[in-house]
# Entry
Amino acid sequence: MTQERIDGARLAAVKEQQLLVSLAQQLAQAQFRQGDQLRSRRLWKEAALLELDPERLTHLLYAGVESGDRQALVQLDQSWCGSQDSRSRGGSVRSWLRKRVFGQRPSGSRSLAPRTEAVHQQLLHHVR
# Structure
């Protein structure tokens, strides 16, 4: 039974990563190639609804990897996730994004860690 739970968790992680990479590719197309603000905003809202980490998504967009190279994006994401697992993360990015995009208040009064402020400023530009 434990093996089934581990496999289920791994499957969920792979599905999330595939969604994230797909959204990163679509966002790169909308934002960088087409300059389509409406589509970009819809894609950021979709990411928020799926509760994907905006820092993770932003990393894929701005790390300098060609957005058409799916395998490179997957490897980049795996590397990023490994580095994030070894650090403690402060604040609730998902709550912040829900509040910013959908006007909902986060549950709790925690503030975000200072190192995430630059990413949030980038996201503010994208969701307006």
Summary: DSSP finds six helices and no strands in the chain. The two ends are 46 Å apart (CA to CA). Confidence is low (pLDDT under 50) at residues 88-92, 105-115. The first helix runs from residue 2 to 34.
